[in-house]
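Lab meeting, item 3. Inverse folding demo.
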């Protein structure tokens, strides 16, 4: 049976721009445009790229925030007006159900953005966990754009100067091109940039306004993946899932210190035990020569013992070489450790490399 794919409000524009459309998380999405993945990657690193991420889930939560906080790893009491946090949904074993963003862009409760492939499960879990205490409203009538790259600030300085006052992980309500939008200074590329939540009816207008700027080109899913991999950022369902905890995934920073001290989050006992015992496996970065190692490639010691598996891998255009992430035992995670990746049945020399592979350029003021 042919899969029935959803379309974002920008679908017709993607086709008009020559986007190569592919199925992704139940949506018909552009994997690349005529510029090509390598060109789009370079465009974002050197100038600015515009990504359609409207397939992701957006929602508002109002009511008892303690009920919502109990399901997350951040401290909502410490989330001030105009602030955004990266946080996690965990199961009772400490496994990662998903990662998400929570923010206070205005005075209407908190604003949530979750991954496209997980949004139905996430919102059902959040609604069930806060039932009778708060109200979760899915925002199905909004689009989401990400403007990323060193020139993003120059574009925004012309179109919405107030937004340039934000630093990394701040947010607010703004007027962009005559449209009321919610915006954060964040993104998934390792570059400075802005994520913009827009009423669905205005999505094409705002996208065309941004694409009309000399510094901006449309960017597809292919370059989005290579950019986030170079930035050492996890992709849910690949680098993290319910079989991995924040400790193993090297995401313990997403668990607020106050929450760790209180131990009032799902899987707290397991996670604290892993912290105390220095968990046996952790996510690491790897660089190698020759052909890239893709997801599923085995990681081996120089003696040939299989010790792990690549969770994300590909070519890193910025460093002009293959990069990968995966999990290995703690005694093999030191930077500079020499390992092998099994690519097409043959061992390829690889070196444990500190993440990110490319320095992050987030604007911190």
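The presenter then showed the designed sequence:
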């Amino acid at each position: 049976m042919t899969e029935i794919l959803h379309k974002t409000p920008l679908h017709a524009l993607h086709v008009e721009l020559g986007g190569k459309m592919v199925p992704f998380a139940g949506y018909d999405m552009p994997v690349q445009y005529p510029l090509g993945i390598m060109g789009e990657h370079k465009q974002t690193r050197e100038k600015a790229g515009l990504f359609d991420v409207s397939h992701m889930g957006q929602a508002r939560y109002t009511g008892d925030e303690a009920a919502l906080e109990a399901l997350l790893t951040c401290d909502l009491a410490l989330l001030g007006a105009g602030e955004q946090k990266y946080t996690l949904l965990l199961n009772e074993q400490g496994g990662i159900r998903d990662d998400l963003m929570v923010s206070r862009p205005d005075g209407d409760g908190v604003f949530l953005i979750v991954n496209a492939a997980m949004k139905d499960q996430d919102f059902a879990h959040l609604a069930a966990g806060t039932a009778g205490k708060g109200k979760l409203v899915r925002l199905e009538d909004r689009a989401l754009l990400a403007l990323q790259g060193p020139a993003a600030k120059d574009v925004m300085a012309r179109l919405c100067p107030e937004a340039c006052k934000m630093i990394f992980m701040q947010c607010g309500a703004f007027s962009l091109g005559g449209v009321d939008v919610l915006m954060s200074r964040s993104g998934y590329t390792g570059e400075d940039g802005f994520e913009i939540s827009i009423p669905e009816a205005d999505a094409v207008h705002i996208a065309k306004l941004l694409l009309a700027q000399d510094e901006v080109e449309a960017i597809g899913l292919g370059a989005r993946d290579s950019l986030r991999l170079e930035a050492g950022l996890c992709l849910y369902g690949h680098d993290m899932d319910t079989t991995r905890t924040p400790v193993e995934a090297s995401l313990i920073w997403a668990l607020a210190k106050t929450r760790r001290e209180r131990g009032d989050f799902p899987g707290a006992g397991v996670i604290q035990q892993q912290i105390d015992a220095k968990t046996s496996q952790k996510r690491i970065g790897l660089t190698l020569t020759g052909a890239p190692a893709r997801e599923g490639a085995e990681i081996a010691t120089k003696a040939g013992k299989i010790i792990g598996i690549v969770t994300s891998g590909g070519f890193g255009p910025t460093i002009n070489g293959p990069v990968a992430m995966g999990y290995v035992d703690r005694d093999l995670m030191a930077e500079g450790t020499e390992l092998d990746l099994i690519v097409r049945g043959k061992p390829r020399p690889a070196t444990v490399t500190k993440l990110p592979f490319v320095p992050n350029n987030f604007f911190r003021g």
